[in-house]
From TrEMBL:
The keyword Ligase applies. The keyword ATP-binding applies. This is Phosphoribosylformylglycinamidine cyclo-ligase. Its main location: cytoplasm. HAMAP family: AIRS. Residues 180-343 form the PurM-like C-terminal domain. It catalyses: 2-formamido-N(1)-(5-O-phospho-beta-D-ribosyl)acetamidine + ATP = 5-amino-1-(5-phospho-beta-D-ribosyl)imidazole + ADP + phosphate + H(+). Residues 62-167 form the PurM-like N-terminal domain. Belongs to the AIR synthase family. Coiled coil: none annotated. Pathway: Purine metabolism; IMP biosynthesis via de novo pathway; 5-amino-1-(5-phospho-D-ribosyl)imidazole from N(2)-formyl-N(1)-(5-phospho-D-ribosyl)glycinamide: step 2/2. It holds the Pfam family AIRS. It comes from Salinactinospora qingdaonensis. NCBIfam families: purM. The lineage of its organism: Bacteria, Bacillati, Actinomycetota, Actinomycetes, Streptosporangiales.
Length: 352
């Protein structure tokens, strides 16, 4: 996972420490090993990860792929010196895009670019990625750590990940299954997840907020810790839901907010009518809006406002869907319905 394998004094003089890269690989090995699946081929070449596909298990398998990063939430992790959860955010962004079409996440690869390889920090980051992969039953099959002196400051780093999933061709979920009368189920988010952090950082800077301060409005929690709350990973919960009830579509609520993302799973002749009186967003959203003087419309167009994933289900399946998710530890509720329309999302009412 590290760039280079042999020490070079000339390379070191240029700012690349290959010995540190090798040590980072050694430190991360146990984390990577904790994400294994039976299909993982361990006698790999060392340059590419291998994953054995059991073709007898599927009738007409379709592979799904997704790639994403964490965005500027990483900058808060760096300011807080907290690097063990940002990897969970990375996995969540990737696998929860995969599961939207009904795909089971199989494996993920990561890419870490940094100004200087600090082995212990890299290991912390990978520990978080591994924790997210375990939550999604997804193998961390390989990756790369690249040292970019001169292009990045020594303490800076960025993350990206790519994942692959699998779904039967006749089980692919999406707009073609959605129709008038369907019910929209909300799954609670753990906070802003990994979206809107450029605005969050602007609020912090302009309001002069200290990330280490305890905030009464947030239950006296430390602001930075609240903002670094990891993304909730829904992949296995969505798969369990689709296995038990008639699910027509999912929508991963990321950048752009609820309306923009839910719109992506609607056919052209159907609208979603969402009742915002059915839930109260986590306190962090109200705090950010107040500190930054952000209008409600801007909040709704930037943040998930407490809904990290939505499921569109057959109306008769709604109660069972909510019950199943609650049993799995995911707060869920009916938040809307589908009506004749033009593929738009209507947000009715105000949050309590």
């Amino acid at each position: 996972m590290a760039e280079g394998s042999n020490s070079s004094s000339a390379y070191a003089a240029a700012g690349v420490d290959t010995a540190a890269g090798d040590r980072a690989v050694d430190l991360m090995k146990r984390h990577v090993a904790s994400t294994g699946r039976p299909e993982l081929v361990t006698e790999a070449s060392g340059f590419a990860g291998l994953f054995r596909l059991d073709t007898a298990k599927y009738r007409a398998p379709v592979l799904a792929t997704s790639t994403d990063g964490v965005g500027t939430k990483i900058m808060l992790a760096q300011r807080m010196g907290r690097h063990d959860t940002i990897g969970i955010d990375l996995v969540g962004m990737v696998v929860d895009d995969l599961v939207v079409c009904g795909a089971e996440p199989l494996y993920l690869t990561d890419y870490i670019a940094c100004g200087s390889v600090i082995p212990e920090r890299i290991a912390e980051i990978v520990a978080g990625i591994a924790a997210g992969c375990r939550q999604a039953n997804c193998a961390l099959i390989g990756g790369e750590t690249a040292e970019h002196p001169g292009a990045m400051a020594p303490d800076d780093y960025d993350l990206a990940g790519a994942g692959t999933g699998i779904v039967e061709a006749d089980a692919v979920l999406g707009p073609d299954r959605v129709g008038v009368g369907d019910t929209v189920i909300a799954m609670a988010s753990s906070g802003p997840h990994s979206n809107g952090y450029s605005l969050i950082r602007r609020v912090i800077d302009q309001a002069g907020l200290d990330l280490t301060d305890q905030v009464p409005e947030l239950g006296d929690a430390v602001l930075g810790e609240v903002l670094l709350t990891p993304t909730r990973i829904y992949a296995l919960d969505c798969l369990a839901l689709a296995a038990e009830v008639e699910v027509h579509a999912f929508a991963h609520i990321t950048g752009g907010g609820l309306a923009a993302n839910l719109r992506r799973c609607l056919p052209a002749e159907v609208d979603a009518v969402i009742d915002r009186t059915t839930w109260s967003p986590p306190a962090v959203f109200g705090y950010l809006a107040e500190q930054g003087g952000i209008a409600a419309a801007d909040m709704a167009a930037t943040f998930n406002m407490g809904v990290g994933m939505a499921a569109v289900v057959a109306p008769e399946a709604a109660d069972r869907a909510v019950r199943l998710l609650e049993e799995r530890g995911v707060p869920a509720w009916v938040m809307g319905r589908l009506t004749p329309g033009t593929g738009q999302v209507q947000l009715d009412g105000d949050h309590p």
